[in-house]
């Protein structure tokens, strides 16, 4: 079983933009709504596609499985079978031997920018860049599955940031 250990943060400034080594457009969709034991996602990452299954739990560590799939199949699934989709640009920022993935959401989630960092252990120490704000790891509203079904643009202003 694969385990993903990841922490998620709100991005509060544009300082990361000059540090981004590369960027990749992504489109992803979810094959089931909320309330199940797993999140099942299809993602187009540039010209590559992947099927991803994650335990539907909130927190820094959760089971994760990921498999390559044909891009044409992913496109068809995104167009016909998903209960919710989202688009974003993922920017990769290297800092102190770790990679920060900065997701700049597009479309109905525009205006939201979130940074994630994958770790080797739940208690691994790391430095937070100055553009990293409040931690979102335990807030399900900022998980992609939730955003695909409940777009950021539909949230009341009081719930944003």
UniProtKB/TrEMBL annotation:
Q: Which domain of life is it from?
A: Bacteria
InterPro entries with a match to the protein in the record: CYTH-like_dom_sf (IPR033469), CYTH_domain (IPR023577), NeuTTM/CthTTM-like (IPR012042)
Where does the CYTH domain start and stop, copy by copy? 2-149
- Residues at the catalytic site: 30
Protein name, UniProt field = CYTH domain protein
Q: Which species is listed as the source?
A: Stenotrophobium rhamnosiphilum
Q: What is the lineage of its organism?
A: Bacteria, Pseudomonadati, Pseudomonadota, Gammaproteobacteria, Nevskiales
């Amino acid at each position: 079983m694969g385990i993903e250990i990841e922490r998620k943060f709100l991005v509060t400034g544009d300082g990361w933009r000059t540090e981004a080594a590369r960027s990749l457009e992504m489109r992803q969709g979810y094959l089931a709504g909320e309330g199940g034991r797993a999140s099942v996602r299809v993602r187009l990452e540039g010209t590559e596609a992947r099927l991803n299954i994650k335990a539907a739990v909130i927190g820094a560590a959760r089971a994760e499985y990921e498999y390559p799939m044909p891009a044409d199949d992913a496109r068809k699934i995104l167009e016909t079978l998903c209960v919710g989709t989202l688009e974003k640009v993922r920017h990769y920022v290297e800092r102190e031997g770790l990679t920060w993935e900065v997701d700049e959401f597009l479309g109905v989630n525009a205006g939201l920018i979130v940074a994630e960092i994958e770790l080797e252990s739940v208690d691994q120490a790391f430095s937070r860049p100055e553009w990293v704000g409040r931690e979102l790891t335990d807030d399900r509203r900022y998980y992609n599955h939730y955003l695909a079904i409940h777009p950021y643009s539909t949230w009341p202003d009081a719930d944003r940031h």
